[in-house]
């Protein structure tokens, strides 16, 4: 309990310090930090549409962050979330456009499973190569990011049939049988691209939390991550768990990509680089400090800053990039929690000293008349 | 196209694409040999690219053809300063190395573009006027055949990078400093017991990675992208990291891996000009370098072994 309380206070301090860094940068370059942050808050919460935008932004980040966390728990550094998400995105949009007449009750579950499976496959490959051959998953996932990026663009440009494309660079919009957007959500948020994906993300958070903390599988993955030798000695298969963990990690990223495709953009278009949701999800996971509840909070903060930042240039003239600097600073302070812990320890030590001093003073006042020398010895 | 012309095209473009990877992967090697994992190479390259372009645009009139080389220094200095963030976080503040590296990667493009907007009022710079272009190495280019292939109209920074690789190998494996650097990366406690200053050595490892990563970024900006924007450095830092692991944390290995990546990347770019390759669908040329890397890694290298205390913070008993 004390640990949780402590990590929450570290998170809050980190956010505060990150905002201070942003304010200092704004001051240095001649912007007014107060009007900058007012513009940020005003833009993030100013309209239902923007609030919807915050949720749209959060959705894939929660999923990719969960994916990163699972891999990290098993002792892997999955830097390939972008590629895995892209696999889910391309596959799901392609599938949805290929079966425009399939009823929604068949389409939605099957497309979600397909997208997740594609991401899972893209995660399983590096997991298996690492388990079987000892090939560094860092290199393999970096390389696969490029392979999947080029393949995705090539499938769009050269393989997809002309009938499902708007132009050489974009597909048509998916039909209502595959769209995850629903009317009431769209209406509440004045036409933002929020979708039921946000509920999927919340549900997956609970599912992942349950699997990782309450099941044998989760226990094995955590054991393998903590000490593969001890886990093997206890009869757990490090290889099997490596593949499963990377498959789950990639699957969540694939689901994130699917929701981007069917909930947010409703199409696929030529990508100039790996989707940002991979690397941003990594940042969210690190900000969340490896806790599943923390991931939700971190995704919310990250998204508020992103959406809020979009409004900053117009009203206060501060370039949008400032919010990325703030985000990076927040994560810096989360990482450098030792700094905050030392400061907290100093402050509490000072508090204690003050408390002891006042207590002593009180005691001294009451006892000084009776016995002066005894107090000195007590110090 | 004659065989000579073809070979020299392949060689020169390989060198152009390899140069930034060589510098940066060797930088990473210094950092990780000292025990600090550096996934922030991408960000460091970004800052180097930013600084070199700003310097280049500002001083091109004064320095003329020497500008790109001086900008390289500017990139090196800014990369070094920026890497201090990683050093302070990991060595002094005991931060997780991956977290700190990610911060570097998030911070660099944001800071770079922010400053570009403050300086020039828009999200990307004008193209630079003085770039590296092609250099002919005096003397060596007179060697028959080989001179023409390797030293005529070639990439100047690549040859500098190769010299740096050899020098770095010497420094890491043949000097006292290198021995000490490796020892804090393998067993910081033992090194500390023997009177070495672990923190100072790790700082120098990270700062060298900043210096070389900054140069790597400056090379990309001034020989490939020729301006600075958010998309100047997209993934080269991660490729360099892969080259470092591929090269087994050895500068000569990193050099070889970088040349291999450079060759395969350049084939994707110039493949259309080469007979035999010009009929292959471009997608295969595009993904070939990355597929080859995985295959080579899996079948020929297998398990790569990082320095033992790589990524482990050393907390001295009080």
Write a brief structural summary:
Chain A is mostly helical and 379 residues long.
Explain this structure.
The complex is a heterodimer of chains A (379) and B (318). Chain A is mainly alpha-helical. In chain A, 78% of the residues lie in helices and 1% in strands. Chain A has helices at 2-28, 33-45, 48-73, 81-98, 104-133, 137-159, 183-188, 197-214, 216-226, 228-233, 238-265, 276-287, 292-316, 321-335, 337-367, 372-378; strands at 165-167, 170-171. Chain A has a two-stranded antiparallel ribbon. In chain A, a hairpin with a 2-residue loop joins strand 1 and strand 2. The longest helix of chain A has 31 residues, at 337-367. Residues 373-379 of chain A have low confidence and may be disordered. By secondary structure, chain B is an all-alpha fold. Chain B has one domain (3-301): ABC transporter involved in vitamin B12 uptake, BtuC (Orthogonal Bundle). Chain B is globular. Classes of the chains: A mainly alpha (379), B mainly alpha (318). The interface between A and B is large, with 45 and 47 residues.
State the low-pLDDT regions of chain B, or none.
Answer: none
Mean pLDDT of chain B: 89
Overall shape of chain A: globular
Overall CATH class of chain B = Mainly Alpha
Mean pLDDT of chain A: 89
Secondary-structure class of chain A: mainly alpha
In whole angstroms, how far apart are the ends of chain A?
33 Å
Pattern of helices and strands of chain A: HHHHHHEEHHHHHHHHHH
Low-pLDDT windows of residues of chain A: 373-379
Tell me the greatest interface. A-B, 45 and 47 residues
Descriptors for this entry?
heterodimer, A: 379 residues, mainly alpha, ABC transporter involved in vitamin B12 uptake, BtuC, 2 domains, 2 strands, globular, B: 318 residues
Chain-wise SSE layout:
The complex is a heterodimer of chains A (about 375) and B (about 325).
Chain A: H1 2-28, H2 33-45, H3 48-73, H4 81-98, H5 104-133, H6 137-159, E1 165-167, E2 170-171, H7 183-188, H8 197-214, H9 216-226, H10 228-233, H11 238-265, H12 276-287, H13 292-316, H14 321-335, H15 337-367, H16 372-378
Antiparallel strand pairs in A: 1-2
Chain B: H1 3-33, H2 41-63, H3 67-92, H4 97-120, H5 146-151, H6 156-174, H7 176-186, H8 188-193, H9 198-225, H10 236-246, H11 251-270, H12 282-301
Helix pairs in contact in B: 1-6, 1-9, 1-10, 1-11, 2-3, 2-4, 2-9, 2-10, 3-4, 3-9, 6-7, 6-11, 7-9, 10-11, 11-12
């Amino acid at each position: 309990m004390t640990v949780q309380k402590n990590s929450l206070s570290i998170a809050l301090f980190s956010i505060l310090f990150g905002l201070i860094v942003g304010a200092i940068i704004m001051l240095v370059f001649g912007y007014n930090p107060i009007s900058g942050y007012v513009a940020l808050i005003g833009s993030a919460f100013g309209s239902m549409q923007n609030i919807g935008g915050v949720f749209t932004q959060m959705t894939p980040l929660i999923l990719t962050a969960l994916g990163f966390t699972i891999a990290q728990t098993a002792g892997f550094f999955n830097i390939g979330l972008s590629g895995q998400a892209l696999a889910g995105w391309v596959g799901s949009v392609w599938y949805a456009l290929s079966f425009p007449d399939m009823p929604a009750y068949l389409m939605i579950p099957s497309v979600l499973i397909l997208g997740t499976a594609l991401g899972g496959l893209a995660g399983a490959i590096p997991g298996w190569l690492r388990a079987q051959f000892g090939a560094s998953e860092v290199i393999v996932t970096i390389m696969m990011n490029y392979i999947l990026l080029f393949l995705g663009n090539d499938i769009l440009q050269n393989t997809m049939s002309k009938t499902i494309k708007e132009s050489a660079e974009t597909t048509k919009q998916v039909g209502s049988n595959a769209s995850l957007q629903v009317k009431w959500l769209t209406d509440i948020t004045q036409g933002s691209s929020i979708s039921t994906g946000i509920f999927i993300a919340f549900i997956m958070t609970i599912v992942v939390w349950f699997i990782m903390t309450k099941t044998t599988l989760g226990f094995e993955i955590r054991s393998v991550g903590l000490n593969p030798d001890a886990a093997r000695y206890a009869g757990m298969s490090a290889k099997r768990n490596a593949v499963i963990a990377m498959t789950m990690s990639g699957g969540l990223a694939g689901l994130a990509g699917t929701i981007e495709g069917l909930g947010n953009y409703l199409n696929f278009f030529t990508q100039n680089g790996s989707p940002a949701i991979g690397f941003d999800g990594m940042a969210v996971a690190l900000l969340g400090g490896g806790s599943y509840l923390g991931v939700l909070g971190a995704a919310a903060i990250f998204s508020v800053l992103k959406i809020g930042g979009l409004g900053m240039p117009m009203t206060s003239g501060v370039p949008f990039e400032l919010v990325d600097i703030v985000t990076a600073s927040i994560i810096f302070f989360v990482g450098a929690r030792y700094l905050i812990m030392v400061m907290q320890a100093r402050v509490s030590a000072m508090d204690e000293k003050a408390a002891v001093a006042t207590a002593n003073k009180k005691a001294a006042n009451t006892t000084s008349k009776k016995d002066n020398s005894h107090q000195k010895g007590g110090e | 196209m004659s065989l000579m012309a073809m070979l020299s095209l392949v060689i020169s473009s390989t060198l152009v694409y390899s140069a930034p990877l060589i510098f940066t992967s060797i930088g990473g090697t210094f950092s990780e040999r000292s025990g600090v994992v550096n996934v922030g190479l991408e960000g460091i390259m970004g800052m180097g690219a930013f600084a070199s372009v700003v310097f280049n645009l500002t001083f091109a009139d004064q320095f003329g053809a020497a500008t790109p080389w001086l900008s390289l220094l500017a990139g090196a200095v800014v990369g070094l300063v920026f890497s201090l963030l990683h050093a302070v976080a990991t060595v002094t503040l005991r931060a997780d190395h991956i977290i700190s590296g990610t911060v570097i990667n998030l911070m660099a493009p944001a800071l770079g573009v922010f400053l570009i907007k403050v300086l020039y009022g828009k999200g990307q710079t004008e193209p630079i006027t003085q770039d590296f272009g092609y250099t002919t190495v005096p003397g060596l280019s007179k060697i028959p055949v080989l001179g023409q292939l390797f030293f005529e109209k070639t990439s100047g920074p690549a040859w500098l990078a190769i010299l740096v690789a050899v020098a770095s190998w010497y420094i890491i494996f043949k000097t006292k400093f290198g021995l000490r650097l490796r020892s804090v990366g393998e067993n910081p406690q033992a090194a500390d017991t023997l009177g070495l200053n672990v923190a100072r050595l790790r700082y120098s490892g990270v700062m060298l990675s900043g210096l070389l990563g900054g140069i790597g970024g400056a090379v990309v900006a001034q020989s490939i992208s020729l301006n600075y924007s958010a998309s100047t450095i997209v993934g080269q830092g991660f490729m360099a990291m892969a080259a470092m692991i591929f090269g087994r944390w050895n500068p000569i290995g990193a050099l070889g891996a970088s040349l291999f990546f450079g060759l395969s990347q350049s084939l994707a770019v110039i493949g259309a000009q080469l007979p035999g390759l010009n009929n292959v669908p471009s997608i295969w040329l595009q993904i070939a370098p990355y597929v080859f890397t995985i295959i080579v890694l899996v079948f020929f290298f297998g398990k790569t072994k990082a320095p033992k205390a790589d990524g482990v913070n050393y907390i001295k008993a009080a």
